[in-house]
Design a protein that fits this description.
The chain contains eight helices and 20 strands. Strand 12 (155-158) and strand 13 (163-167) form a beta hairpin. The strands form five sheets. Strands 11, 12, 13, 14, 15, 19 and 20 form a seven-stranded mixed beta sheet that branches. A five-stranded mixed beta sheet has the order 2-3-9-4-5, covered by helices on one side. The chain is globular. It has a single domain (8-316), classed as Ribosomal Protein S5, domain 2. The two termini are 39 Å apart. The protein has helices spanning 8-12, 97-105, 128-137, 199-206, 215-223, 253-265, 284-297, 311-323; strands at residues 23-27, 31-36, 43-50, 57-61, 69-71, 77-78, 85-88, 91-93, 111-115, 139-145, 147-150, 155-158, 163-167, 174-179, 192-196, 212-214, 236-239, 242-243, 271-280, 299-301.
């Protein structure tokens, strides 16, 4: 489907889709945080910095010569088990999905993330520490319109015993659904989560859902020399009886965490999504393939679709005047 589809104009001006447009945002100041990577155990320092309009979210490896920049875009994603990794040239960053989910939930479109290690800090395996830190420093609007991609027809992305169904939105927003299925390693896996995207709902229902794995998987990783600093008190290590040395925060915490991962992985673009994304047993790899397919099969809506006399354009002009 072409970005210039003639379907765009009649759809966008039915009224309910106008709310999909907004101004771009960045953070109001710098904020730093320390932690250690779950996989490699290395201490890491992150610093989030404001960025200019249309610069997007990008990582800067301060420990490498020339401080290379890695954009948070799907074309830089490299396949790696159980995480989202980005690579450009000789520079890489790992385990970025929880950071990106917090940025996306707060609608922070332009941000420089300076890191002195490849792997992001794991904390408790959720987005809560990133969300709270970024929310505390504040989000400010910028004099540019955020682009939107509109799902105009249904699409299905198939994986190995998994899939994502994509359908048009009925109200102009984004909806994420996830369903787990029971398995020998995850007998409590019959969980579902429905998330109607908003900053408030992410804060109240999604941001503190933690990563999980079976005891069998945890034993395998430890035997391989990985995750040596992580304990069952940090993440959910599951047995048929429940988490080891831990308790669920929600009765469907695993499904909620999968939605958190979807929010992070689906942010690997320079646009907002308008559509419904329904995943069955999907993971990072399927999420990335879904984003690639969406970039080819959705309608791109930019500033040219915003009425010149709209409140949004007036605010944009006012911000431009202040900056002049």
């Amino acid at each position: 489907m072409s970005d210039n589809s003639t379907l765009a104009a009649p759809i966008i001006f039915t009224g309910k889709f106008r709310q999909s447009f907004r101004l771009q945002n960045t953070i109001a100041g710098r904020v730093s945080m320390n932690g250690f990577g779950f996989w490699n155990g290395e201490d890491v320092l992150l610093e989030f910095c404001p960025a200019k309009t249309d610069s997007g979210v990008y990582f800067v490896r301060t420990d490498l010569s020339g401080e290379p920049r890695i954009p948070a875009l799907v074309q830089y994603r490299e396949e790696k088990p159980r995480q989202t990794s980005l690579v450009k040239g000789h520079a890489r960053v790992d385990m970025v999905e929880h950071v990106l989910a917090a940025l996306r939930a707060l609608k922070i479109d332009n941000c420089e993330i300076r890191t002195n290690r490849a792997e992001m800090p794991g904390f408790d395996g959720s987005s809560v520490r990133f969300f709270v830190a970024l929310n505390r420093v504040g989000v400010i609007s910028q004099a540019a319109i955020r682009k939107v991609r509109l799902v105009a027809r249904s699409l299905k992305i198939d994986g190995n015993d998994s899939w994502i169904n994509i359908t048009p939105s009925r109200n102009g927003g984004s909806v994420y659904k996830f369903k787990l299925a029971p398995s020998p390693d995850y007998p409590q896996g019959d969980q579902e989560c429905l998330f109607k995207f908003s900053t408030e709902t992410f804060r109240d229902e999604i941001m503190d859902a933690r990563t999980f794995l079976s005891k069998k998987e945890a034993d395998y990783l430890l035997a391989a020399g990985l995750c040596q600093r992580v304990t069952p008190k940090d993440v959910l290590v599951l047995t048929p009886e429940g988490p080891i040395d831990n308790n669920y925060r929600y009765n469907n915490e695993c499904a909620r965490h999968k939605v958190l991962d979807m929010v992070g992985d689906f942010s690997l673009t320079d646009c907002d999504w308008v559509g419904t994304f329904d995943s069955y047993r999907g993971g990072h790899s399927l999420n990335a393939e879904c984003v690639r397919q969406l970039l080819e099969n959705t309608i791109l809506l930019d500033e040219s679709f915003v009425p010149k006399n709209s409140d949004l354009m007036h605010i944009k002009q006012e911000l431009q005047n202040r900056a002049a």
